[in-house]
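Researcher: Next sequence.
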Amino acid sequence: MAASLFSIPEPKPFDQLLSLKGKTAIVTGGGRGIGKQVVRRFAEAGANVVFCARHADQLDAVKREFESLGLPGALLPVTADVSSSADRLKLIDAAKAEFGGIDILVNCAAIYPPGPAMGVTEKVWDDMHDIDTKGAFFLSQSAAAEMISQGRGGRIINFLSTAFMNAAPAFAAYAIAKAGLWEATRVMSKELAPHRITVNAVTPGATLTEEKAAALASGNIPDDLGVDVGEDLQEHLSHLAESGGVASMMKQMIPMGRPGLPDDLAKSVLFLASDMGEYVTGQNIETCGGQKDNSAIDLSGIGAGAQPQSAAPEQAAVDPSDSTEPDSGLDGMYTATVNTPMGAQQIEIDLKTDGTALSGTMVFMGKKLDIQEGVATQAGFSYKIVVKAMLKKMEAKVHGTREGDAIKGAVQSPMGTFDLEGKRVG
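Model: Next structure:
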């Protein structure tokens, strides 16, 4: 019997729904952070991936890292600035020449220097819109033209920001740029739907990339983040520490209790790029752990005269002065785990005692920090470390007790108070 004109096609097998085998994708901003993880997920799914950034060394490092994993998809790094029409054309031509066409475009490249609305200059405005809005729009236009000529449909995915949804202070130009890209997403989704080209958006909330995590520990802030380290910001951090730290604020900001990770976003992008999302268009997937409106954050305790929050019982501070007997058995090298909202972080601690005085080093995220003001007695140990971090210097206090070859305590910092457990290894 002939199939009815209105017969429902047989669903695709599950193992084919997320496959991108035979597809070619262009990913902008693929040299680091979220874009880099999108490149990885696409290559894992079998896609040929043309990915770009403005710095060739970033691209080469990503290619080496992912090729060492033996991912099935081919990788083609292209040095390009999406604010340049010539560079946008270079990306299109590279995809066509190397892989024969374009099936997926992900506009991830963006800059977001913060600043109050009254301080935005025309140069800041133009630079941001040239990349965040104009670059994404015209690259989408060129990619869509190629997809239409190929006649097999396609996917366009744009990155937005909660900044434009929340009217975020200090991000006026960025919020406006992303609002414009959202409107472009909605309009293009309708115009391109007859060609079976879907156009969608993904919105991150607060996302901790490798670069941001490293910056917190080392202070090596990437220039294009545009962070202005001033005394007012330093004072704000001090007050924030008194009120429970960034981790406490994060729990108010994000119902899921942690910032996003690049892979959280990459998985949403993979859904939209694959056959799983073939009937989804004109939509914005807010991949933000429930973070919607920052006005819900209770910052009443932040400010001059704020009282420190008491630590949880299991993190109660140790006072070594409760004893005058030194703990010479504390000497040695320890590996320890600090439990943060982002998961367990591994650290190394080298402790040396001289009477009740404690010295040594602590290695955290690859940076060796000198122990200061250390004390070690039979009642416990405590010391201070100072990290050159995002806001000039970040001070943390470590305290705990020893039982045999094991130590247990907490790290108190502007990021919050976190449990620490370790064992002697030498």
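Model: Confidence is low (pLDDT under 50) at residues 215-234, 295-315. The first strand starts at residue 24 and ends at 27.
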